[in-house]
Amino acid sequence: MFAGLAEQLHAREQEGLRRFRQVLESPQASHITLDGRDYLAFSSNDYLGLANHADLIKSASEGAQQYGVGAGASHLTHGHSSAHHILEEALAQFAGFPKALLFSTGYMANIGVVTALAGREDAIFADKLNHASLNDAAILSRAKFIRYSHLDLAVLEQRLATTHARRKLVITDAVFSMEGDVAPISQLVALCEKYHALLLLDDAHGFGVLGEQGRGSLFLTGRSDVHSLNIVYMATLGKAAGVFGAFAAAQEVVIETLIQSARSYIYTTATPPLLSHILLTSLKLIEQDEWRREALARNIVQLKEGLQSLPWKLLPSSTPIQPLLIGDNVEAMRISHGLRERGILVPAIRPPTVPQGAARLRISLSAAHQPQDIQCLAQALNELTLHL
User: Fold this and answer.
1) Residue 80 a catalytic site member
2) What is the spatial distance between Cα 345 and Cα 197, in angstroms, rounded to a whole number?
3) Which of 44, 110, 159, 233 is paired with 312 by a 20 to 30 Å CA distance?
4) Active-site residue (options: 30, 177, 264, 336)
5) 27 and 60 share one domain
6) How confident is the chain (388 residues) per 10-residue block, as mean pLDDT?
7) Are residues 358 and 254 in the same domain?
8) Which among 75, 80, 131, 239 is annotated as catalytic?
9) 381 within 8 A of 363, measured Cβ to Cβ
10) Does residue 313 carry a catalytic annotation?
């Protein structure tokens, strides 16, 4: 058995697909210490630069003093703290829904929502570039799993129109984590209303970054009616929010269904209440600090301008996720290693995370990046083209 595992690992390494962990020895920031060396980092999802914010650190201390460090039980067996409850109410109001429910992670939220709302007699419709957690959730639900080409709403409509499932559930990323593009939310909402389908919107990479006051992708349209009754909204709290966790927001009947049936909510210890206390501070900063999103927008423009002459092209994205498409796995790793030698961290993303032949560098921008940081990355990438 172990010989077979070793062969599989060797094969992955030969294909340039083996992954390795590195040890972070500093707080998460635009400049970090990794394995004993200082780097300029374009590798985290700390889009607003909040992960090491002084106000959040202060709130952590206050939260620990007030609530201790562990929940000690699941939400349904006396682990549901007043801190959790207050945060859920704040998140629901911020996202524009009647109710919200905290989950430990975005992965657990998607698993819980999908398996609670769909089963053997139902059909799930999914964008082919969805996050792995959405795909795994669909498989676990045992519903019919129907995938459509990336952002191809004509195919989605055709499949919605021809299914005879008891319940229809469309699941999609709002911002696609490896592409950086944004789903056409208004059209998806309209399609789901037309065919009486639920829509699960995974806004892990839009919450805090996009829309009015960082309220997420649903606020991009500027329309108040986009918060349809058929939407279940999921967002994570460890990316732009800078802390940890996730939440689902929806109509009250949906949230109550999740409390009763979402196994990844019911059968796990609640997150430490102090995290919820910190997130209340994070939520205020997201709402108030418009300058952070303005800094991000400037960084995106500067990066695009600085990489125009490269032989590799940035995929079309207006978000902090700026994928530089390389194609070949080994070449992507070579460029990533070349940047690392220059003191810059940009991860190479390879199959199965992205399709075969679509290896890329995933450049993640933060409001904490300064103009000289963007300039440094652009210069290093342009230097690496000389070695092609």
Assistant:
1) no
2) 42
3) 44
4) 177
5) no
6) 91 82 94 96 98 98 97 96 98 96 98 98 97 97 97 97 96 96 94 96 98 93 65 98 98 97 98 98 98 97 96 95 94 94 95 90 98 98 84
7) no
8) 239
9) no
10) no
